[in-house]
Amino acid sequence: xxxxxxxxxxxxxxxxxxxxxxxxxxxxxxxxxxxxxxxxxxxxxxxxxxxxxxxxxxxxxxxxxxxxxxxxxxxxxxxxxxxxxxxxxxxxxxxxxxxxxxxx
Length: 104
What we know:
Elements: H1 10-19, E1 24-28, E2 31-34, E3 39-43, E4 50-56, H2 61-78, E5 81-92, E6 99-103
Parallel strand pairs: 4-5
Antiparallel strand pairs: 1-2, 2-3, 3-4, 5-6
């Protein structure tokens, strides 16, 4: 039996990036990459109106807190369900044009 595909309303992520004066550089499956890769958004697997926020683990503690607060405030302003879920790391695979994303 095939699994039903969940609709992922990209316009929610676009509203957030617009509110913060940035844009989306790439979206793949349930992941959305705003420009500069300082944050990553992920759609919830069961609730298409809920997004998770991850912040690049290379950021310092103060920057993580600042980014988290800015994104969560933008979500409240736009009435979007955004939940901070921790940090992430992107690693380039040697000799390939592929990356691995690790969630912390």
